[in-house]
Amino acid sequence: MLQKVVSSKKLNPHNYYRLPWSLTDNGISWLEVTTKCNLACKGCYRDPNKEGHKTMEEIREELNIFQAKRKSDCMSIAGGDPLVHPQIVEIVAMVKEMGWKPILNTNGLALTLKLLKQLKKAGVYGFTFHIDTTQVRGDSKATFEKEHNQLRTQFAKMLADVGGLSCSFNQTVSERTLTQIPDTVNWAKENADIVHSIVFIIYREPSMASDMQFFAGGKEVPSAESYNNTDFCGGRILKTQDVVDQIRTIDPQYDPCGYLNGTVDPESFKWTLAIRATDKKKVHGYMGANFMQVVQSANHFFTGRWLSYCGPSMLKIGKTTMPLLAPLDRGARKSLFNFAKNTLKNPLALLKRVNLQTIAIIQAVDFMPDGQINMCDGCPDITVYNGELYWSCRLEEIKEHGCFYTAVPRAKLASKPAKKTSAKKIKERV
Ligand code: SF4
């Protein structure tokens, strides 16, 4: 049955902290160690049959380029699936030794307890598991997102048993799965002691590009090259606000604290971060803009880097963080007030741990009516290719054509060119 969603209060960028992340100084960078993968997701931006594994020398060279051109707290190690790279343990050790927190972005299929322990020893900081119904997986046959929750819990427990690792889950969102978001948000709350963040990534819907004609180096290219249709799309173009509306159906107090806007549209929310104070039963509240500003500024002051991922030891001290930041932040104050109220109703709540848990929403590439392409301003997923920095979500354009596409609205191409005014007429007008 279709759930009726009433649009909630519109997000206003003025209410939130604009993350200070930039091209040269960011929370995250993106290292692709292979194009190979043990899944073939239809929506994946990479061709698993091209290029294959990078050598250790190539990877070191890319890390050297990052060191020269861009500072970041974390290094997302991605692919393909990075766990299928035969030297993944050495790669993690190299990333750690060169000064980043290594985060593995994986579907988890190749993760065994033995490998996890080796990766922990090598210095891995955390994992972001990509598990959703856009995949055809051997380890979980799900047609609805909540049917994957058992598998998600299994990975979160595996990490918690080994200990000291950050645990995050990505989920692709299309119109077909939009109304299933509340199930994942609830599941994350019930597992707030072992799940530190959940990320909803809005799929770049092909219909958003259907009004555009693409060109690379002046030559026309078929839009299907990058915006291929898949059977999990619904046809409706989703925005961050649609995901927010869904979350608010089960948690009306949901409110972000930080964001990244678009490169072209200042009102677009490309990365939206909310941090909630929650035990496994009750959400006490959401941290506000000042909280994020204080945390980012303090981290940069003391370490020289903008913060991205936090370890479990920092996230489980919600009971300390709320009163500590309450004088500065409205969200922390409200959460503390709710916590006190809940404790009065049920004194046993005082014994429960309050965790800080992140809910992130990413709205990838979108188009303006005039053909401008709206990217994430201060893109955290910048990668290295041939010695240069590029948006990883559009790297295939560089690989195939050596340049990014430009887009022109089809309507503009179809309209007749303006008639040339003859020299005689111009003379007459003058
Ligand atoms: S611009 Fe592309 S690669 Fe960068 S963060 Fe946004 S979606 Fe990711």
Helix content: 25-40%
| Helix/strand class | alpha/beta
In the CATH hierarchy, the architecture is Alpha-Beta Barrel
CATH topology-level fold name = TIM Barrel
- Report the biggest beta sheet as strand number plus sense, adding barrel if it closes: 11 strands, mixed
Task: Report the total helices.
Answer: 13
- Average pLDDT confidence is 91
Overall, the morphology is globular
- Give the strand content: 15-25%
End-to-end C-alpha gap: 68 Å
CATH top level label: Alpha Beta
* DSSP, total strands: 18
Secondary-structure blueprint of this entry?
Blueprint: E1 17-18, E2 25-32, H1 56-69, E3 71-78, H2 88-97, E4 101-106, H3 113-122, E5 126-130, H4 149-162, E6 166-173, H5 181-190, E7 197-202, E8 212-216, E9 219-221, H6 240-250, E10 258-260, E11 271-278, E12 283-286, H7 289-303, H8 312-315, H9 318-325, H10 330-345, E13 355-363, E14 366-367, E15 373-374, E16 382-385, E17 388-391, H11 395-401, E18 406-409, H12 410-414, H13 423-429
Parallel strand pairs: 1-10, 2-3, 3-4, 4-5, 5-6, 6-7, 7-13
Antiparallel strand pairs: 8-9, 8-18, 10-11, 11-12, 11-13, 14-15, 16-17
Helix pairs in contact: 1-2, 2-3, 5-6, 9-10
The structure holds iron/sulfur cluster.
